[in-house]
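Technical appendix A lists one of the benchmark inputs used to test multi-chain prediction within the project. The record comprises two sequence entries:
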Amino acid sequence: MGKTTLQEEFVKLMANHQKLVHSLCSLYFAQYEDRKDMFQEIVLQLWKAYPSFNHQSKVSTWIYRISLNTVFAKLRKEKLRPKNEPYSDDAYQISAAEHSLELTQATDELYQAIAQLGDVDKAIMMLYLEEHSYEEIAGILNLSRTNVSTRINRIKTKLEKLLKSQLP
Amino acid sequence: MNLDELKPLWDSYKTQVNEQSEWSEEAISQIVKVRPAFVPWYQKAQRPFLHFCVSFLLISITSGC
């Protein structure tokens, strides 16, 4: 397959699946510029890995695996914020001022609740909501199935509390 | 709390985020284009290594080893 054809195929694939990457970036990065940079970085990493993608796993699983590795590497490298610490009110207000996501109240409550989870827990919750099996989640994040199962129960309890506390 | 309660909210969240962040195929294509072709590290060393091996072989043969 020619390089141009491969590139066209990849661009079409990304255009169809970019929703996954955008939702992931928005969970980890509050600032518009950070989200944009991360999206570009993820697309590059996916492009780099695309020739060796053998289509044996689901496309979404492949995208999530590479995207999450890229996000975690970025968070480790630049230490944008202290680990497992929710965004401060100030950070949220700054992002709200410029290019913040305009979400309906219900989805904003979910976003705020998930934003308070730790980095790995966010990924687990996102993959769980995307209806990936425990085995798939464990494979993507290099965790054991038991660990994933335990964490999901813990996260669900935490989210339930957070969402209840946000209700008027 | 089960998946059925959160799934519609999550789908709505994804749709709203995508509507505000969506990139066109052209824009995605630009990201890919600016990246130079990936060259594995060993490819850079392949030719000098081949030259060295050929030279070594020739020296070995001509010196009678």
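The helical segments of chain B are 3-21, 25-34, 41-62. Residues 44 and 53 of chain B are 16 Å apart (CA to CA). Comparable benchmark entries are summarised in Table A2.
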